[in-house]
Design a protein that fits this description.
114 residues; mainly beta; six-stranded mixed sheet; globular; 10 strands; 1 helix; 7% helix
Length: 114
Amino acid sequence: MSEISQVTTHVLDAAEGMPAREVPVTLTVQRQSDWITVAEAVTDDDGRVTALGPARLEPGTYRIVFDTGRYFAVKGRPAFYPDITITFALTDSEQHYHVPVLLSPFAYSTYRGS
C-alpha cells in the first residue's frame, strides 16, 4: 500500500449514491502567477485518492482539479461542471488535509474533512 499523502480526497457521486470511481485528479501549487503540478491520480474503487503527492508539503496555496467532465462522459451523463477546482491554503505542514467532494451532474459541495 502507498504511503498516505498530506493531501487526500474522496469523491462521492450523490446522484448514484456510490463512490465516484476513476475520476482524474490533479494537485497543483501556486508559485507566483504559475500553477505547478505536484501530483496526478485517479480515484480508486472507493472514490478515494490517498496518494496525492508527498507525505509533507510546504505551506502555500494549492488547488485540486477534478476532471468531472471525463467521469460523467464515461457514464453517458451530462455534466454542467466539466471540472471542479478547489483552491485551499495549506498553512501547517504537520497537519493532514482531506478535501472531499460530493458530486452530482449539476451540483457539487466540498468541505475540509478529517
